[in-house]
Amino acid sequence: MVNTDYERYETQLHQRRQDSRLFIRQVLAPIATALGDDYQVELPEDIMNEGTGYIVMPDGKRLIFNYEKLNAGKGQFDVRGDLTVEDISLHDHVPNGRKNPHINVTVTRSAVDIARDIKRRLLPPYEAIVNDALQNWRDSEAKKRHIASESAKYVEASCGMLRPSPRNTLCTYSAQFHIHSNRRDSRTMYGDVLVYADHVDFNRLSNVPAVQALQIIKLLAEADSRTDDHTKADSV
After folding, report:
1. By the 8 A CB rule, do 66 and 74 touch?
2. What are the residues whose beta carbons fall under 8 Å from the beta carbon of 213, sequence distance 6 or more?
3. Could you tell me if residue 74 is inside a domain?
């Protein structure tokens, strides 16, 4: 049976991709060895990702090697560190004004020379930017947890000072808090608050301290005769 042009194309494409992966592995293996113990070569799971390989560092971080054919005809790798570390994408946490460092290395150079260049020119700035980005990520996550905790407190407090509507016991006088912190003072919680009466948008408070928003909600409730007895409300 004669293969169609499409089948021949698919066969050639698959072979080219296999050859590409073999080439990448053959080039990166001695570089990994030259970098030191426990450096391992990995290839992308997707065979369609041609010309790319990884060297995994002993601590789990990866160096990404992208093979390029430049106009000068010299085969080169663009080498840079991966900014996804421990399954955390750090791209949005890189300090302002800083970029992920990279170097170009020529494939025909010895593996020892390439490894020396990577250690000298790439690893120090890459390690520094990853450490800073990880710290920014940790700070961001801690801030999110703090804001979520504070939001829950304010929602609970608003529910504690407001009672069901006397006109319909199934409907409540309630508030929704969207809390954020003041950049100048992370201890001060600001927020946009939407107050509901009988499931109708009753009032909206924007960009006010959350503690003050609670006080305003209480005043609104008192004016509408919705609060519990003053003793309970003042104790919240």
Report:
1. no
2. 154, 175, 177, 191, 193, 205
3. yes
What residues make up the domain containing 102?
Answer: 5-140
Distance from C-alpha of 65 to C-alpha of 79, rounded to nearest angstrom: 5
Output the pTM of the full model. 0.65
3-state SS assignment for residue 65: strand
Q: Does 42 lie in the same domain as 86?
A: yes
| Same domain, yes or no: 135 and 166 | no
Does 151 reside within a domain?
Answer: no
Q: What is the pLDDT of residue 175?
A: 57
Bridge partners, residue 66, by sequence? 52, 78
Residues 121, 114: contact at Cβ < 8 Å?
Answer: no
Using a pLDDT cut of 90, give the percent of the chain over it: 39
134, 172 in Cβ contact below 8 A?
Answer: no
